[in-house]
Specification:
Elements (H helix, E strand, L loop, with lengths): L1 E5 L4 H17 L4 E7 L4 H4 L4 E7 L1 H6 L1 H6 L2 H9 L3 E7 L4 H9 L1 E7 L15 E3 L7 H13 L26 E5 L11 H13 L3 E4 L4 H11 L5 E3 L5 H9 L3 E5 L2 H9 L3 E5 L4 H4 L6 E5 L30 H18 L1
Parallel strand pairs: 1-2, 1-4, 2-3, 4-5, 5-6, 7-8, 7-10, 8-9, 10-11, 11-12
Helix pairs in contact: 1-7, 1-11, 8-9, 8-13
C-alpha cells in the first residue's frame, strides 16, 4: 500500500504527524509513505523509516511571487512530481485551503478532516472522504485518529511513538554534560523574559552543566548573545542545519524551551525537556512523550492565544504571565525530571 501525506508546515505540526505513521506501519504490514512538505523542513519526514520519498514544495515563497513560480517552471515541475504515482490513499493532514489545493491535484482516494474538524472548513470539499475528528484533544492524537480512520485500522492506545531513532543522530564525539535552551519563537507573547533565561543559565552552569543557545535568524542570534553575555559557561552555537541541530539536541543532558517547533523535536528524540507555556495551551499542542514536562503559567488571562501580550496591569516582566514561572521554579522542575529519569533507568 502506498500513501501520500500532505503536511507542509510548520515544524511542530510536521513532527506531530510522525506517530501516526508509526501506528500505520504496525497495523498494515506493507504500507509505505511519500510526503509533501515545505522545502525548509524536508529533513523531518526522512527521519521516519516508513517514508520513501519527500516531495518539497515552496508555497511560502510562491505566495510572495506567484508569477515567478509559474514562469520559472517550478510549479509545473512540482505538479509533475506530485502526479508521478497513483496512490492508494492521499491524506491531507493539515486541513488548510493551501494543503487541500495540493491534495486535489494528487492521484488517489483523498482523505482529510471534515468541515467541523478542519482548521479551514472549506478544505474539506477537496476530499473524497472527510472524517470528523474532535478538536478538543492533543494535535498528535487527532492526527493518529485521522490516519486510523482513513486507513481503516483501530487506533492503538499506546503512547505516541515518533519513530525517530536517536541512533540516526549519534555522534562519536564525547563532551561533558550540557543543556540546550530553546529561547526563540515567532510569537512575542511566547518569549520567556531574557532576564529569566540569564538567571536559569546561572543556576545550570553552577551545577557544572554547560549551556548552548541555538538560533535561526539574526534577531534570535542577538537574543542568544544577550543571554550568554552574563554567563561565561553559556555559549551561542554557530549556524546549523536542522540535522546538525537535531544531532546536538539528541546528546543533550536536558532541554528547556518555550512553545516552538524545536521543543517538539525533543519529544521525538526522547530528550528530557521542560517546556514553558504562557499564551498557548499545552493540553492541545504541548510536547508529548517520554521525559517531557509542560509548565504552564498561572495567570488570569492565560492562555490568551494572542500573538502579542495585551495585559495592561502592573507586572515585573513582559509577557506578564511569565512572572508566575521564574527561573528557580523551572530549575526545580528540571532537577525533578532528571531525578525521576535516573530512578527509572
Amino acid at each position: 500500500m502506498r500513501v501520500l501525506i500532505i503536511k507542509t508546515s510548520s515544524m511542530g505540526d510536521i513532527i506531530h504527524t510522525l506517530p501516526a505513521l508509526t501506528d500505520a506501519t504496525r497495523a498494515i504490514q506493507d504500507i509505505r509513505f511519500d510526503w509533501v512538505v515545505e522545502d525548509s523542513f524536508v529533513d523531518i519526514p526522512a527521519w521516519h523509516s516508513a517514508v520513501d520519498t519527500v516531495i518539497p514544495v515552496s508555497l511560502r515563497r510562491w505566495r510572495k511571487q506567484p508569477f515567478k513560480a509559474v514562469v520559472s517552471g517550478e510549479w509545473k515541475q512540482f505538479r509533475q512530481r506530485l502526479r508521478e504515482h497513483s496512490y492508494d490513499y492521499v491524506i491531507d493532514a493539515q486541513g488548510l485551503i493551501k494543503s487541500a489545493f495540493i491534495c486535489k491535484r494528487a492521484r488517489g482516494q483523498k482523505h482529510g478532516f471534515d468541515k467541523a474538524s478542519a482548521r479551514e472548513g472549506l478544505a474539506s470539499r477537496a476530499y473524497d472522504v472527510a472524517h470528523f475528528i474532535p478538536r478538543k484533544q492533543h494535535a498528535v492524537q487527532r492526527l493518529r485518529r485521522l490516519f486510523a480512520n482513513a486507513l481503516r485500522y483501530s487506533m492503538p492506545d499506546r503512547m505516541a511513538d515518533y519513530g525517530v531513532s536517536r541512533e540516526h543522530f549519534k555522534t562519536l564525539d564525547t563532551e561533558p554534560a550540557y543543556a540546550i535552551f530553546l529561547h526563540a519563537t515567532t510569537w512575542p507573547s511566547k518569549h520567556w523574559p531574557v532576564e529569566y533565561w540569564q538567571q536559569l543559565a546561572h543556576l545550570v552552569t553552577a551545577a557544572n552543566i554547560t549551556v548552548y543557545l541555538p538560533w535561526g535568524n539574526e534577531q534570535e542570534r542577538l537574543r542568544a548573545e544577550q543571554i550568554a553575555q552574563v554567563v561565561p559557561q553559556a555559549h551561542v552555537l554557530s549556524a546549523m542545519s536542522l540535522n546538525q541541530l537535531a544531532t546536538r539536541m539528541a546528546a543533550a543532558h536536558f532541554v528547556v524551551g518555550i512553545d516552538t517547533g524545536l521543543a517538539h523535536l525533543t519529544a521525538a528524540l526522547g530528550v528530557p525537556s521542560v517546556t514553558l507555556y504562557g499564551s498557548t495551551r499545552a493540553d492541545l499542542t504541548g510536547t508529548l512523550g517520554a521525559c517531557q514536562v509542560n509548565l504552564e503559567v498561572d495567570f488570569d488571562c492565560a492562555p490568551c492565544m494572542k500573538r502579542e501580550c495585551a495585559y495592561q496591569g502592573s507586572a515585573t516582566v513582559s509577557p506578564a504571565c511569565y512572572q508566575t514561572l521564574p527561573a528557580e521554579k523551572v530549575w526545580d522542575e528540571v532537577q525533578s525530571l532528571l531525578t525521576k529519569q535516573a530512578d527509572e533507568s
